[in-house]
Amino acid sequence: MGETLDIALIQTRTPATAAGGLAHVSPLIREAAAGGAKLILTPEGTNLLEQRRARREAVLADEENDVAVLGLRALASELGVWLLIGSALVRSDQPGDGRAANRSLLIDPTGAVVARYDKLHVFDVDLPNGETYRESATVRPGDRAAMAQTPWGGLGLTVCYDIRFPHLYRQLAKAGAAMIAVPAAFTVPTGEAHWETLLRARAIETGAFILAPAQGGTHEDGRRTWGRSTVVGPWGEIVAKADHDDPCVVPATLDLTAVTRARAAVPALTHDRDFSPVLDPS
Fold first, then answer.
1. Does the pTM of the predicted model rise above 0.90?
2. Which of 47, 143, 145, 242 could form a disulfide with 21, with the two C-beta atoms 3.0–4.6 Å apart?
3. Which residue out of 38, 50, 63, 160 is catalytically annotated?
4. What span, in angstroms and rounded, lies between the C-alpha atoms of 56 and 83?
């Protein structure tokens, strides 16, 4: 594992079609590569954000045919960078299941897909402000964790709502992840209340870099997302962040030796103990 790595988070306000998504994100990726980033990460829903079911059904494609996925693979090859498509909404691979997959794709500098991860935890919530989300109605959850090997060490793949399930992050760290991606399209109420706190907690618990590119602003389908893309170091410190929700590039240089130092200082990943399940006190 190299000692330092120049990365960039891409913050977007993705349109409602894959062609629009590709046109929106490509200049930001080019800007990041021109700035020296070797690993570039985009948010959840990089190809399209459309929560109106009929309209989304009309524009969804298979991964192999999605114009944004194909275009971003070609762009990674052209620029010679590693590119994490934080997620693309594509047709599910499961026969008979009409829902989409919310799929993270890691692209190497040849344009090849070297890792895939379908979001495990889908966002089914009723927020205090009256907003209601039932992601399970339109997205088929994945059933396996994923970690990819890069020239700089292990990169764990998660998406958005996964951040609330710390056991997933612990497993990724124990499997060798020095970096864990959290591409997101956080709601404004939950983002304002919990975004930075959750990111810092997962970094502290795992002793890993947390890389969280986000959607931000008001989208074509009417949703509002929080933005504030953030890089957190393995000691829980903020390495870089956007303080707004507008599209932008957030560059950072990671000192990867910090992972070893943090895990040596507090070796909690080696201190798991078996214990009895919670019992009903009655």
1. yes
2. 47
3. 160
4. 25
